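Intended use. Records like the one below are meant for learning the mapping from a protein sequence to its folded structure. Do not use them to infer anything beyond what is encoded.
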Amino acid sequence: MSRAPHALLWDMDGTIVNSDPLWERAATELLAEHNATITRETGLSMVGLSLWKAAEILQQHGVALSADEIVERKVRRVLELYSQTEVSWRPGARETLAAAKHAGIPNVMVTMALSSIGNAVAQLLPENTFSKVLGADQVTAHKPHPEPYLRGAALAGADIRDCLIFEDSVTGIASGAASGGVTVGVRNLVDISNCEAHIIVDSLQEYDLETWFAVFNKYRGTEPVPGGYNQGAKL
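Structure written out for the chain above:
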């Protein structure tokens, strides 16, 4: 068996759960209250950003609230939507999380949502699926800065070079790659084809834990490259 990573570090929105539509709905409702709109392209540009950066964009498009007020309103609304709708999980995420837990490898959530939302999602999974949850309110610098993933590794008691990172956004992949962990981009809403990563895949569903161990062993200590080393090919 290949050497296992010491921890798996996970983005949440768009990587574990298909929650971007919930954030989009919360933003659209706020915009409507202020007789404002944004384009589809502007909406996609907010994917992976911290809540406060996204709030700045909404302010620029006519939402006359402070950034903190926008964040509070969006978080409250998304938590309501989680309680009212069935959660849509990203393909293969729960299976990979469960396999890692079974193998004794810590899963750490590293999200740019608030920790309250991260914990709410973690509670929808079997107990102790995540050993730790790290939210945007618990770090000083947000993605694409490497701090979130460096902190996530520290929470797992691991060296970042011994961690495997799963991300779906441009800013998140940049954060993971800059941290020094082996970074896997998972395609979803935004185009990540040219992101500097170690591997870019269409779905986690296609690969088992042993394959991810092999990826980790092959690319540990190497620099990420645009489009990943696999360049769109199957692993």
